[in-house]
Design brief:
- The complex is a heterodimer of chains A (574) and B (121).
- Chain A is built from 18 helices and 9 strands.
- Chain A has 574 residues and is of the alpha+beta class.
- In chain A, the strands form 2 sheets. In chain A, strands 5-6-7-9-8 form a 5-stranded mixed β-sheet. A 4-stranded antiparallel β-sheet of chain A has the order 2-1-4-3, covered by helices on one side.
- The longest helix of chain A is centred in the C-terminal third of the chain and has 63 residues.
- Chain A is elongated, with a radius of gyration of 42 Å.
- Chain A starts with a helix and ends with a strand.
- The mean pLDDT of chain A is 84.
- Chain B has 121 residues and is of the alpha/beta class.
- Chain B has 6 helices and 5 strands.
- In chain B, strands 2-1-3-4-5 form a 5-stranded parallel β-sheet, with helices on both faces.
- The longest helix of chain B has 13 residues.
- Chain B is globular, with a radius of gyration of 13 Å.
- Classes of the chains: A alpha+beta (574), B alpha/beta (121).
- At the A-B interface, helix 13, helix 14, helix 15 and helix 16 of A face helix 1 and helix 4 of B.
């Protein structure tokens, strides 16, 4: 509702209330002054609370609904006109305010009917008020119901007290069903609510229960207007819209919140830092921010990881913040805390630049994550290929050469003691074959040590140490297997370090330690050689640094001349 | 004396050569098998004294075959072989229920006979 509409409605409200206050005095002296006062105050309370709610929370339907209740409350007063047509209209609309009241209860606090069951309950309330409660009208002659002075019922077809009473009974039964439905809706909402939401819902639930009890007792006393119960019921009915308004305003998000948000965002430099000020401004600690990545058609979190928006969770509401029609980000929040689309629009407007900036950063992180993942995949694919080549060498060339050596062994047996020259040639060929087999073995080992995948790092490093020309001491190893990529990186790092220690550093001792903590593997390899090693592009150490960085780790090389070489690698693990 | 041999290796030319080498050295090669499953059924039907068993087979590895054979009542003497060296096979070789290991490039009837005799005694 625009402010102009609200002002006009307020004026109309004052006029109607004044009419309701004055008319009975002027026209029909049947009601006491207290009754008239009570009647007017209830209407004024609903209209005023509704107007304040509509003013403060323009996007929420609760305000207009309470105003409607306030106006419909006076429908009864049309009777004072004392003419047949208004009298008939008043009779037809007499119960509509009850349906609107039911609508307020079920739709509180968001103003929306979010559940199917809630929509059915409210629809039934309207059907009851407008149709079922009026089924009696064609049969209802006010003169037969103890009101000889009432105007004519224009809708009267056939006066029948029995049919009219039967229709009344049906309307009451449906009303009871509607009340039960409202109770179920409210209990279910209470059950599904977060503690923060319950703080908002609680007062309205209690007031609603009190309203039901007092109205029930009032009806039980046959609507005796002067009893204590009648007064009490009137007080509760007057107070109820104020409780609803108070609850609505308790989650009221004032303009100051946006100002604070803008200040808070000024110090937020990362997508992750954006959440805190937003959560504070929106008053929802559970707020989540998701950034839209158009190229991938999905939402990601501040770290660039894909997230699913909780679109099916009834307790969560998702709002997409847009700029020029394009989504920038989505906010997921407790559905009972923030209902006002206009406020969210204001948030989106105030934070657009920051959000767009954060979105771009998140997009960058997505790309970075993808590059990282693709590097790791390239390394893994390379390792697989190395494994395949090693296996091929083993199954192919190596087996053929071994078979050939056996053949030479047989040939030597065949000519034993005979041809000396042939025997010497066979020995020479066998020695060549032996050398070729050694070469192939070394090549295969360099491609991928079979023992690493078969038995793990422990056995592979032990073999490496046995084969090394420099004594290698393994001081510490994690128990159990590590991820393949990690084991491979650690093994190749150790193999390179041991080879360098022997070939270039002239070391007399190499120490290898591998420690595993919760998140990473820390590898330390120290030798006592001459130092001075630097990773040069294309060199073994630079290749290993690439391999380690590809799986998210880092390698530092300390190698001052004369102080040995000290490698330290940190590799994330698990 | 242990004389009948089953050769288990997935490489046919190697099996052929190994057969000739062992037969030249006085062994009776009663069968050949190219994978772990056929090795087990060949042992059941041929009941060889000795099984020359490659460590790397296409279906199960030779260590698993050795463990299965060790559970048989007529357990044959198992000698493992591989184109890989002892160092490359690590502890699995030490743990395997086998009479010994001969690297493929050191395979001879004499080496097999020595291991078999050590076991037979």
């Amino acid at each position: 509702m625009s402010h102009r509409t609200i002002l006009l409605t307020a004026c109309a409200g004052v006029a109607v209330a004044a009419a309701a206050a004055v008319l009975p005095v002027v026209v029909g002296p049947s009601a006491s002054a207290l009754q008239i006062f009570r009647h007017v105050v209830i209407g004024v309370a609903w209209t005023t609370a509704g107007l304040v709610a509509a003013w403060q929370r323009p996007g929420n339907r609760i305000g207009p609904l309470m105003i409607a209740f306030g106006f419909l409350w006076y429908v009864d007063d049309i009777n004072f006109w004392n003419a047949a047509f208004p009298f008939t209209v008043a009779e037809l609309l007499a119960n509509l305010y009850l349906a609107v009241g039911a609508h307020v209860l079920v739709a509180f606090p968001s103003g929306r009917l979010s559940s199917r069951f809630g929509r059915i309950v409210v629809a039934l309330a309207y059907v009851d008020a407008l149709v079922i409660a009026n089924l009696n009208t064609p049969f209802w002659d006010p003169r037969m119901h103890g009101c000889p002075d009432c105007p004519h019922n224009l809708a009267l077809v056939h006066a029948s007290r029995a049919i009219a009473d039967g229709a009344d009974l049906l309307a009451n039964i449906v009303a009871a069903v509607v009340v039960a439905g409202i109770v179920i809706v409210l209990l279910a909402r209470w059950r599904d609510s977060t503690p923060a939401a319950r703080r908002v819902l609680g007062p309205v639930l209690w007031a609603g229960a009190l309203l039901a009890v007092t109205q029930g007792m009032y009806a039980f006393e046959n609507n005796d207007n002067d009893s204590l119960i009648a007064v009490l019921a009137g007080v509760v009915l007057t107070a109820f819209p104020l409780v609803v308004l108070g609850a609505l305003l308790s989650v009221r998000l004032h303009r100051g919140a946006i100002a604070q948000l803008v200040i808070g965002l000024g110090s937020a430099s990362s997508p992750a830092g954006l959440r805190e000020p937003l959560a504070k401004a929106l008053g929802d600690p559970s707020l989540e921010v998701a950034f839209w990545i158009p190229a991938e058609d999905r939402y990601v979190d501040a770290d660039g990881h894909e997230i699913e928006l909780p679109t099916t969770d009834p307790r969560r509401e998702v709002s997409v913040l847009r700029h020029e029609g394009r989504p920038i980000a989505a906010l997921s929040y407790d559905s009972s805390l923030i209902e006002e689309q206009t406020f969210l629009d204001a948030v989106a407007a105030a934070t657009r630049l920051t959000l767009e900036n954060a979105r771009l950063q998140a997009e960058l992180r997505v790309q970075l994550n993808e590059v990282r993942a693709s590097r790791a995949r390239i390394v893994a694919a390379g390792d697989e290929e190395r494994k395949r080549l090693e296996r091929n060498l083993h199954d192919g060339a190596q087996q053929r050469l071994l078979a050939t050596r056996l053949a030479l062994q047989l040939a030597r047996g065949g000519i034993e003691g005979g041809n000396g020259e042939a025997s010497a040639l066979i020995d020479e060929a066998d020695a060549e074959l032996k050398g070729a087999l050694e070469d192939i073995r070394a090549l295969a080992r360099g491609l991928h040590p079979a023992i690493l995948s078969d038995e793990g790092l422990d056995a592979a490093l032990a073999t490496l140490a046995r084969r090394s020309q420099v004594p290698v001491e393994i001081v510490r190893l994690p128990a159990g297997r590590l991820p393949v990529a990690v084991e491979t990186a650690v093994y190749f790092l150790a193999a390179e370090a041991v080879a360098n220690a022997a070939k270039h550093a002239d070391a007399s001792h190499v120490r290898i330690g591998v420690a595993l903590d919760e998140h990473e593997v820390v590898v330390r390899i120290d030798d006592d050689g001459r130092g001075g090693a630097t990773p040069v592009p294309g060199g073994g150490l630079a290749g290993l640094r690439d391999r380690i960085e590809a799986i998210g780790g880092c390698l530092t090389v300390g190698s001052r001349p004369g102080a040995g070489t000290h490698l330290r690698a940190e590799i994330p693990c698990g | 004396v242990l004389r009948t041999v089953l050769i288990v290796d997935d490489h046919a030319p190697f099996r052929r050569m190994a057969r000739r080498v062992l037969e030249a050295g006085g062994f009776a090669v009663v069968g050949e098998a190219g994978d772990g499953a056929s090795a087990l059924s060949a042992v059941a039907s041929l009941a060889p004294d000795l099984v020359l068993l490659d460590v790397l087979l296409p279906d199960v590895d030779g260590f698993a075959v050795a463990r299965s054979l060790a559970e048989r009542p007529d357990r044959p003497v198992v000698v493992l072989t591989s184109s890989r060296s002892e160092a490359e096979l690590g502890q699995r070789l030490e743990r395997a229920p086998a009479a010994g290991f001969i690297a493929k490039d050191a395979l001879s009837a004499r080496a097999l006979a020595l291991l078999a005799e050590a076991r037979g005694r």
